[in-house]
Amino acid sequence: MAALPEACEARSVPSTQLRGGIPLFGMDADTALDVVTGRLGLGCPPERNLATFLTTSIEPEAQRLYRTYLNHNLVDREQYPAIDAMLRECVGIIGSLWHGEPHRVAGSATTGSSEAALLAGASLLRNWQERGATRRPNLVMGAGAHACWAKFCRHWDVEARVAPARGDSPSLDPDEVEELCDGGTIGVVGILGSTLDGRYEPIAAIADALDRLQERTGLDIPMHVDAASGGFLAPFLDPDLAWDFRIPRVVSINASGHKSGMVPPGLGWVLWRGEGDRNQGLGVRVNYLGGDDAHHELTFSRSAAPVVLQYYNFVRYGFAGFHAVHARSRGLARRLAERMRATGRLRLLGDGGELPVVAVTARPPVALRELAAHLAERGWAVPVYTLPPHLEHVEVMRVVVRSDLTPASVEELATTVEEFVAGAR
Length: 425
Ligand SMILES: *Cc1c(COP(=O)(O)O)cnc(C)c1O
Description:
Its EC number is 4.1.1.15. With about 425 residues, this protein is an alpha/beta fold.
């Protein structure tokens, strides 16, 4: 730890004199700790935070590992070759979970699925440009696509060609895919696990539609799967569902290590089927860290700890452990969904059977925003939002059943919802 030089001893009483917007003299570490935690508090306790998909707790051994590697720079491959080897091994493991060939897949650890999506999109765009582009490029996706795809399209100047939502689902309809694609289409994004309702998009059926398009027109359009939430869940719970590299048209996949990969915030993965699918132009050579390596990420320096924890989780839980943890979440989500449905006033958009997410709409006199406020008074954080364009009249409440939610807290939540619904008039 950096200690202060003696000539500049910190005070135990914070100084009120400012310079450059910060206190002129520092304070001792204990006092600073109190000042900061006093300001922040801890927020919603994890077992009551039903809003986030992200990991909210890790076991003590993982915390120790995290602290140990927090100050190791992931990008410093020369200094920490073992960490780099571990990262490569993770890419191979994830590649096999997604039915790629472990020694063929190419990929990166990223800060999250958003950076992963930007890289996957950039690769699709470059590959398309190299096929002789003459028009404005577009990327086809469903109405439920995450904001990271809008970011990619905006910053890379690609048209976001969003399929209009049908019925009450934001899911990409395979029948619309053929109509939306043309010679400017750099790729189609399918989502394995919608952020909005927890449903899987029909990845195989979308690929079939693209096969038909190719037979008819000769256009060969690649697919990317955004498996931010489902990438570390479907391999364990839905082994027979082909959504991954088993589908020849899928060239790349992203997932968030910090969602169902059970790593604390700060980790995503992007994998390509093979080095030939990842556009060579993504790599930038860097020689001043000692090696002469191509870097494929958008960011540079960051902590190695999340990658170390991803590997820890693989060896700690094993295949059976990942299955057990996620199966429990899915089971809890399904039971919660069933109890909400049984109230007769809540309708299920997502029943927990795919991502462990329960998404409901309400019939009068039940108002979801009042229900969420009622839950908030009891300390539960549960979001209510409207669906994207064409479905903006549909208001949804969503509960994410994460691995650290206990059966008892889900039970308590269900009872609270039932009582509120029964009392609504
Ligand atoms: C969460 C999410 C993202 C963004 O992932 P981050 O890891 O938070 O950057 C992208 N797509 C989907 C489908 C998501 O659920």
